[in-house]
Structure formats: C-alpha cells, structure tokens
Write a structure and sequence with these properties.
With 374 residues, this protein is α/β, with parallel strands linked by helices. It is built from 16 helices and ten strands. The protein is 44% helix and 13% strand. The structure holds ligand V47. The site of ligand V47 has 23 residues, from strand 6 and strand 7.
C-alpha cells in the first residue's frame, strides 16, 4: 500500500516523502490530501503516523459531562443548545445538581469531570470557584476540565478583569484543563457568518496560549462540514499547529462534525438531512488532521458527533482516542446527533478491541488509569 510511485501518481509525492522522513507537512500538502481521489491512500499515511506515535493503543476515559446551563449571551448560528433566559427549554443547574451529577458514579469516581455551558449573563466566576473547590475535595483524583476559551473571555468581560487573571483563579480552584470547544473555524469571513458574536480566532489562540503559560492544559477543536472550504480547514489546522509550537499545551484535537438540526445555519443551508458524502469527508478530515498536527499528541474520534460506527472507523484514519462514557450530553444531541447518551466502559473497550486496537483507560490528561483506580 505505502508505495512511493503510487503516491506520486496521486499528486502526493511530497506528502509521502515528508511522512516517511518524519518531516512537517505544508498547507499545500494538506490541500493535496483533500484533493486526492483515493481516500484509502490518505488513510494509510495517517494510520502510519498514528501507529508511529501510539502503536495500537486507543484511549478512552470514564468521564462525566456536566452542561451547567444553556443560557448564553452569544448567538452562534450552528448552535441548537443555547437559549435566552426565560425561553422554553432554558435551564441552569443549581450547585447541588452539579455536585450530584459529579458524584453519581456508582462508587467508581470519574477520571474526568467535564464542565461547559453557555456564556451565562449573570453567573459569577466565584460561584464556579466554590463548586470546583468542592468537587476537588470530594473527588481529589478526578481531573477537572472546565470551560472553553470563549467562556474564559466572557468571564473576563463580566468580572472586568483580564483572561490571564480568570485562568489563574480557576487553576487555584482546582481546574487542570480547558475543553477544546469554541474554535469553530478561524477564517474571519466564515466566522462572521457562523458565529458573529464570538471571540476571534486570534483571541482563541491567545487565550489558549495564556492557559498553557500558566501550566493549564487544553484541548482544541474545529467545527467542520458547514460553509467552510477544505482550504479553511487546512489553514485552521496550521494555525493550531503554529500556536502549539509556541505554547505547547494542546493535548488533544477534536474534529467536531457539524450536526445539522434545530439550528439557524442548518436552516440556511436547507441541509437538515446531512450531506450524502459526509461520512467519508469526516474520515478524511480526521486523517488530514493527524498528518498536519504533528505536534499535538492525540486526535479524538468523538463518538457523540460522529456516531459510534464512524468513530470506530476513524481509529483507522488517524484517531487514537474515543473519548468516554459521557453520561449526559446536550450540545450535539439537541443539534441532531443520534448517538447514545452514554457508553459504559465495557462497551468502549469492546468497540476498540473489535477494531483491532488495545484499549487504554486514561484520565483527562491522558495519564493511564491504573487497574486499582478503575
Ligand atoms: O464549542 C456546537 C460545538 C462544542 C454544534 O475538550 C457543535 O475534550 C457540531 O467542545 N454541531 C462543544 N458541533 C463541545 C466540545 C467538546 C466536546 C467533547 C470533548 C471536548 C474536549 C470538547 O460543540 C462547541 C461547538 O464547537 N458545537 N453546536 C453542532 N450543531
């Protein structure tokens, strides 16, 4: 399969030589990978890199998502989750609701507690600090992963302070990591069309860099499969790679496949059923991400947005992580994701094993969880 002449004939001679030589691919190589008619050739390159980095290990995590509120001052056009205060379907969990969800673990503490919501107009940062300190006391071994950088920027505005100060306060309260959301697509023209009120791509990268400088890890992401071009995806990935060269704290990249229901962007595109070639385009995007993001260790096959079958296939297209048990998820499901709400650990292990990989139980920072802690 990995034959040099075959790749040259496909216009991928340069990409092939760089992958084999362990060199960095250019944006032009990324464009060529998207243009290549043979998706299996692209997959084989990504799989080669994935094997070089991780062997047959495939990670999963016993985690709990907690969406604390869907009340949000932003009006991102792809979002089916957000509501205005007082709207039908608007919700905000109480402190006790949040703590109860984190503790609802049948005596096996979650390795990761993942907390995100909307940019809420009134909930102060101090409220979250109190909750995080409580969660850390109650579950000292769990890695607390909270907020996107868009929420960090929102807190800074609300509290009339700067983003570095918000990050410092969260770190002190026990947060170890930021989630990867909010990146969407960095191209300003596309961003203006899909999420006009959101922080810019350069602010996303700047705040992630500040977090990394403070010793906080973060994930990063890309929302794809709407109005952006393949070239936009390639430039987005290259911008993440450039930031990672500078600050080094991105742990995992999450390609977020656009869910086309109950949101304004889908209505504009008249595409509520999803494109017919979406499955292959998603897999190719994951492969290109693995190949371009040579400095980001992990690529997530997020089964909530991909569906479990495509997520399994993604493990042979460069992804090495299946994410986790989740337990409860609203952002994708309200936008049409038809995957389950939760998967148990045995199912995740079986899904990974059935694809020929070796499951590794991890925490949010990808440290393996020992047998005793499972
Ligand atoms: O920021 C919103 C995306 C993100 C839609 O860090 C949509 O490990 C698809 O960030 N179709 C939130 N995507 C989810 C997220 C995340 C998920 C899992 C793991 C991690 C991690 C982070 O979801 C948002 C936005 O980019 N999103 N609406 C939609 N219609």
């Amino acid at each position: 399969m990995l034959d040099r002449h075959y790749y040259s004939g496909l216009g991928l001679g340069d990409a092939y030589a760089k992958v084999m030589g362990g060199q960095r691919l250019s944006a032009a190589d990324g464009d060529a990978l998207f243009a290549c008619p043979d998706i299996t050739a692209v997959a084989a390159l990504a799989h080669h890199v994935r094997n070089r980095m991780h062997g047959d290990k495939t990670y999963y995590v016993r985690n709990r998502h907690i969406n604390y509120s869907n009340v949000c001052v932003n009006t991102c056009r792809f979002c089916a989750f957000r509501r205005d205060e007082g709207d039908r379907g608007a919700f905000t969990l109480s402190e006790e609701d949040i703590v109860a969800r984190a503790l609802d673990d049948n005596g096996h503490p979650f390795a990761e507690i993942h907390v995100v919501g909307g940019c809420h107009p009134t909930l102060p940062l101090s409220w979250f600090e109190g909750i995080f300190q409580r969660l850390k006391d109650l579950r000292p071994k769990a890695v607390l992963k909270a907020f996107t950088v868009a929420e960090i920027s929102h807190f800074a505005r609300m509290e009339r302070t700067n983003t570095a100060r918000v990050l410092e306060r969260l770190k002190k309260a026990g947060v170890a990591m930021l989630t990867g959301g909010g990146a969407e697509i960095f191209n300003p023209e596309v961003r203006q069309r899909i999420c006009p009120g959101k922080i810019s791509g350069s602010d996303y990268l700047r705040i992630a860099g500040e977090a990394h400088a403070l010793g906080l890890a973060s994930n990063c992401s890309m929302l794809f499969g709407h109005v952006e071009s393949h070239a936009d995806r390639v430039r987005h990935l290259c911008a993440l790679r450039e930031q990672q060269d500078k600050s080094g704290g991105f742990v995992c990249f999450i390609p977020l496949a656009f869910q086309p229901r109950n949101n304004d962007l889908a209505r504009e595109l008249h595409d509520e059923r999803g494109a017919v070639d979406a499955g292959l385009d998603r897999l190719r995007t994951i492969a290109v991400a693995r190949l371009l993001l040579d400095n980001i260790p992990h690529i997530k096959a997020y089964w909530v947005m991909l569906g479990v079958k495509t997520a399994q296939a993604a493990l042979s297209f460069g992804a090495d992580d299946l994410d986790g048990t989740i337990m409860e998820e609203h952002i994708g499901h309200m936008a049409g994701a038809d995957a389950e709400q939760a998967l148990d650990r045995d199912t995740l292990e079986r899904m990974i094993g059935a694809c020929g990989f070796a499951p590794v139980n991890r925490d949010a920072l990808f440290a393996p969880v020992t047998e005793a802690e499972r």
